[in-house]
Amino acid sequence: WVANAPSRRFGFYDLVAMAPGSVKGGDGGTSERRTMSYGSSFDENAFQLDGVNVTDNFFSEGFSEPNPDTIDEVEVLSLGAPAEYGNLMGAVYNIVTKQGTNQFHGDASYFFQSQDLTSNNTKDVKFPNEKFADACADDPNARCPWTRGKYNETTAQLGGPILKDRLWFFGSYGHQKDLFTRVGVNSKLPGSGVDTKKDRVLVKATWQMTPSQRLVGNFHRDQSPRNGGYLFNAAPSTAWTRTQKAPTPGVAYTATLSNRTLLDVRYSGFYGGVTGYPSDPSQPLNQPRIYNGATGTISGGPYYWYQYDAHRTTATAKLSHHADQFLGSEQDFHFGVQYNEAGVSGIYGYNDFIYTYLSGGKLYGYGNVRQTFSYAATARNIGAFIDDSIRLGNRVTLNVGVRGDYSKAFAPPQNELDDNAKPTGKSFPRADFFTWNSVSPRVGANWKVTGDGKTIVKAHWGRYHPQITTGEFANMIGPNVKPYYQGNYNFATGQVEDLFLTSSSENLSVASDYHPPRTDQFVVGFERQLTAKMGLQVNYVRKWGRDFGAWRDFVGTYVPTPIVDDAGKDPTGRTINILRLTSDPGARKFELANSNQVFTDIHAVTASVTKRMTRWYANAGITYLRATGAVGGSPRSTSIQQRSALEFSQFGRNPNDFVNVAGRLSGDVGLEYKVQGVVRLPLGVQASASLDARAGAHRLRTRNIPSSIAGQSSTTIILQPRGELGRLSSVTILDARLQKDVSFGRGARLTVFLDALNLNNENAPQAVVQANVTSSQYQFPTSFVAPRRLMLSGKFSF
Hints:
Blueprint: H1 12-16, E1 22-24, E2 35-37, E3 46-49, E4 52-53, E5 71-77, E6 92-97, E7 105-113, E8 147-163, E9 167-181, E10 194-210, E11 213-227, E12 240-256, E13 261-278, E14 289-292, E15 297-300, E16 304-326, E17 329-350, E18 353-359, E19 362-370, E20 373-392, E21 396-411, E22 414-417, E23 423-428, E24 431-448, E25 455-464, E26 484-490, E27 495-503, E28 508-510, E29 518-529, E30 534-546, E31 549-553, E32 558-564, E33 575-581, E34 590-594, E35 599-611, E36 616-630, E37 663-664, E38 670-681, E39 685-694, E40 702-704, H2 707-710, E41 716-718, E42 731-745, E43 748-757, E44 765-768, E45 781-784, E46 789-797
């Protein structure tokens, strides 16, 4: 399936999203990279490259992205991960890259898309005010659908022997240019499109040192500048460009110590950097950003600009031993230790952010003001594990394991940097933030119900803890972090006035008893071999997550204050109790702590039937997901993207953040159907297709509460728990491929492809412009699925 799937060319993200229980964060853009697994958030996964963890600790997402044509297979472990796998509460994605053999093999591919091969899926879509959803922002009488700009990609791979039976190589290079313009944006305007370039290199050498020892070394580098363009409701000056460089070396040593014992030692990491600056180089770095909550429009500069270096070093050692008779049973032991260190350092420039809104027919505004500052943060982890598979007779296998982890979060000594990343002469000492110690037991059992092994029942319970996410504290806490002020926005002068302190190194801390969040996972599975080539699998999944982090004010005084949900659209007339701040806003003190108001409760049932490849292959599955709770990383998200950690988030500092936040999680998609298939046709033609259908995102209603009622600015509450207001339209996407092979003999062949992405031309919205009930763009659909695109490609291989 890896080689035959219709390809969107998003690398391994295309493939992991096809796994049962996996929900892609959306269609198009960076949302393609954010996959939730069985209700867990997208920042709870672990990403491995050739068996070694290379997850970015700053955002807890993938960082290194190999060219799709270098991938040999993708291993997805979404349920029942043994104790070997730690620092995650979601799924494990292991990207296994190709390697050389005793035969020279290679291929070269070219992929092409154009506007002539792109359909329009928004020509009949209207907003609630009867205006067309794809009306051009610069000319409401013109139409601006999603527009394909230049798209082409070239890749080349070559592998073979250096010394037959001893030393092999594999190398790859890929270049991708991907330009498109969002709905509502005039593609003819300079800088309006999302313009991504990717240059990716992979080299790999495999050395069979002795018959029992093997050494593999690899180096992967990707560089990907991405001009983010701008949204239909945003000014061109808001556009910014993000550039990422990710050199990723790795080494793996395996040794067969005996016919029963295997040693596996691995190292990998990345040592790169990321910049984000205004797309227009002549534009000033520091330019206020204004969000008009009444109209949903954005003007001014980008939200922020930044420059940072990111690194990760991972080293693992594992010893596997098979014992025929140990305490009277056959057992497979796995012992291991793991070391991880990940850090970031750089500068952030937050532009003044001004938010205006209507309340009671009156226009209000407030602003956040902050100076440029430098920062650094490191997360260090040492883990050890033991897994044991015990065979009890011919039908029962018991899997038991436990891991222990020591994790520490700190900021190393650092120099203060100016806007040009140059030292100012001032330095900051090391700052220790918190230490986590965790124990994660896992236990499972497999029972062959029938003697022929065709019917199996499986069960698993395990406790899982996340990795430390440096983005929660790197630019939040420490003497290097500049104060953060809020004040009222003066519409006449355009200034933020009456500033008061909301955040500084003096009023931020971490609770002394802050400990790692946890997710317990319970799985019961049933597997049945229906025929020699076909199998059925059914799983019930129960997850419950507790002790997630949130900020809290432990000094301010608040009094309950009732408000009525009678303003704006869809009023319920309910009375909602909020908390009014009665003490000095500038005297508050906040700490990052575990919260019993942030939690997850997840139930899922999945059933799938798989037919292995003969002349045809098929995999069909259905998943029912019910995910409830409250997460602090995306409490007011109007899409299905669900984040649990507090990267750059102040969630909880205002206790009204918790009002009605508990309900369905944003990643709760109800029913999801997935079908993948491949069929070989006559004359060397092959067809494949992938269908993904799910329920839409939950609608949400929010309201801004003026400081005259809340006692502080920047108060937005959720008026109804997520799940009460219905959903956006369901999303069904069918991707298909036709390919034709032409053989030239001696293994050489030319393959031509026609991929139809979103063949059914789905146009469902994936979010809304505004959930604020007083906004003129309340519940206006946005983030439409990208239209049908045909992609032509060819591949020569030998």
